[in-house]
């Protein structure tokens, strides 16, 4: 199962966003709000149009945990769908199973949600699915397995995370251990700090 295993804090500092949504990343951004490296403080020049576009792609890629080829393939699929390409891309990213687990409040971060799915702790419509990139559909019921429901880390997340599930995902069923995809997410319901139009411009060159 391919995934990014490099330094996470450096990525967050380079893009000026807490990409992996962990406490360490936020602390470092607060302490050092400039790019990493010896000359990080001195990098004050105006970024080029290409750099801005590339940064937006990198943000989306790292937030959702995709590698370069996976992201490019998803973009190609987004261009073949009806509607706005950038919104199609974000919608498909939001419908990944690991992201749904994160949005439901069972995992504190998307990497943790990916781990839960990979370890076979999640079911879709009653059947176990261990593929983080699995794309859910409208009406699908995503739930935790019986074993997962007794795990301290998941109960801790449910009790302590101050996170509201998006409007397109109905949570709270089965004591909070199940969620239903009530609808397909729209752009206003996707709260990631990404300007998807810049990604489209980058791939359109």
UniProtKB/TrEMBL annotation:
Signal peptide: none
Single GO term (MF): structural constituent of ribosome
GO annotation (BP), single: translation
Entry annotated with the keyword rRNA-binding: yes
SMART domains listed in its UniProt record: Ribosomal_S4, S4
Domain of life: Bacteria
Residue intervals of the RNA-binding S4 domain: 95-159
Gene Ontology CC, one term: small ribosomal subunit
Keywords: Ribonucleoprotein, Ribosomal protein, RNA-binding, rRNA-binding
Family assignment from sequence similarity: Belongs to the universal ribosomal protein uS4 family.
Protein name, per record: Small ribosomal subunit protein uS4
Annotated gene: rpsD
